[in-house]
Write a structure and sequence with these properties.
Number of helices of chain B: 7
Oligomer: heterodimer
Number of helices of chain A: 5
Order of helices and strands of chain B: HHHHHHH
Number of strands of chain A: 7
Order of helices and strands of chain A: HEEEHEHEHEEH
Shape of chain A: elongated
Helix content of chain B: 55-70%
CATH superfamily of one domain in chain B: Cytochrome C biogenesis protein
Shape of chain B: rod-shaped
Radius of gyration of chain B: 35 Å
CATH architecture of one domain in chain B: Orthogonal Bundle
Strand content of chain A: 15-25%
Number of strands of chain B: 0
CATH topology of one domain in chain B: Helicase, Ruva Protein, domain 3
Strand order of the largest sheet of chain A: 5-4-3-6-7
């Protein structure tokens, strides 16, 4: 019995270490978990990209489940996810609001004219202040926000059809109930 | 006489304070720190120190102070704004942690999820020391408390003792 412990204990410690290292190997260090999950979305009031005189605030969006997609005309990987967003908007499952992050409004508008506009409304975050409030550090990012204005999910980097099918859309359907 | 002595003592006691009072009237005392460039205000020095305790989210292995990333620039701007608004270092850190998580801090806070990180190495070290101590103790007990029991051992011991004794005789 004691003899067996002499090699089972070191083996157990070694296996735990290997398991930790193996998990660490397959995790993406660029994905930092957002502290905003489960907390109210930051309060904002921003000008609309296509109607600079009008503004939209976080309070106006309460009572519905919505996605906030942070994008910019200078953002290369935004081009990768863009067809998916256009498709999603076409399906009319959930409204997608855009946050044109640190971008010239005219560049943003031209980019949407060229690539298609999936957004219910796009908001202009010229100096990136609202981006900071949302903890944005790598564009594109997508947030799922529920009826009460609570952030439920954050996708860092481009949307993939897998993330959309497996995580975002099931979550949206659940929250819409 | 006693009054004069007392006033002289009082003067001596107050003397070291005189230059201090003078310096305090200057608005910006010249900084003497080696790494503080001339012309840096106290706020600059404070921001520099604070920024070197915060991580740049984009480059990850650089501090906010070292990074040239666009976001780092924005965050430095934000930190300066908060400092100017009279926020303390802790309030500024809390502000950033609320948005970006503990990852922005180069010094992770001690809480249940980071216990492994903080105390794991010490636990492993003391575990190792314990095992080492056990092995040493067992080895010591085995060698010290092992009396020569078998016939062969007794014979060998006798022969060894005889050899030693013979050498002592030869030397004498």
């Amino acid at each position: 019995m004691v003899k067996a412990l002499r090699w089972t204990i070191p083996l157990a410690i070694f296996s735990i270490l290997v398991a930790f290292l193996a998990i660490g190997l397959y995790r993406n260090p660029q994905e930092i978990p957002s502290p905003l999950i489960g907390k109210p979305a930051p309060v904002f009031k921003l000008a609309k990209l296509h109607a600079p005189g009008e503004s939209l605030g976080s309070d106006d969006l309460k009572g519905q489940v919505w996605l906030l997609n942070v994008w910019a005309s200078w953002c290369v990987s935004c081009r990768v996810e863009h067809p998916l967003l256009v498709q999603l908007a076409g399906a009319r499952i959930v409204p997608v609001y855009g946050l044109d992050y640190k971008d010239k409004p005219e560049d943003g508008a031209a980019w949407l004219a060229r690539n298609g506009n999936p957004y219910t409304t796009s908001l202009v975050d010229r100096d990136g202040r609202v981006g900071i409030d949302f903890g944005v550090y790598g564009v594109p990012e997508t947030f799922v926000i529920d009826k009460a204005g609570i952030v439920r999910y954050k996708q860092i980097g481009p949307l993939t059809s897998e993330a959309l099918e497996k995580k975002i859309l099931p979550l949206v359907r659940e929250l819409q109930r | 006489m006693i009054a004069r002595l007392a006033s002289a003592l009082l003067l001596i006691a107050l003397l070291p304070l005189a230059p201090l009072g003078e310096a305090a009237t200057k608005t910006e005392p010249p900084s003497s720190g080696a790494d503080n460039a001339p012309g840096m205000t106290a706020l600059d020095v404070r921001l520099k120190r604070l920024e070197s305790e915060l991580r740049c989210l984009v480059c990850q292995n650089q501090t906010l102070a070292d990074s040239n990333a666009d976001l780092a620039d924005d965050l430095r701007h934000e930190v300066r704004g908060l400092a100017l608004a009279g926020k303390s270092d802790n309030e500024i850190k809390t502000y950033l942690v609320a948005r970006y998580g503990d990852f922005v801090l180069y010094d992770p806070p001690v809480k249940p999820i980071t216990w492994m990180l903080w105390f794991g190495p010490f636990a492993l070290l003391s575990g190792g020391a314990f095992v080492w101590w056990m092995v040493l103790r067992r080895r010591e007990r085995n060698t010290a408390a092992a009396p020569a029991t078998s016939e062969a051992d007794i014979a060998a011991e006798k022969r060894a003792r005889k050899l030693l004794d013979d050498r002592d005789d030869a030397a004498a």
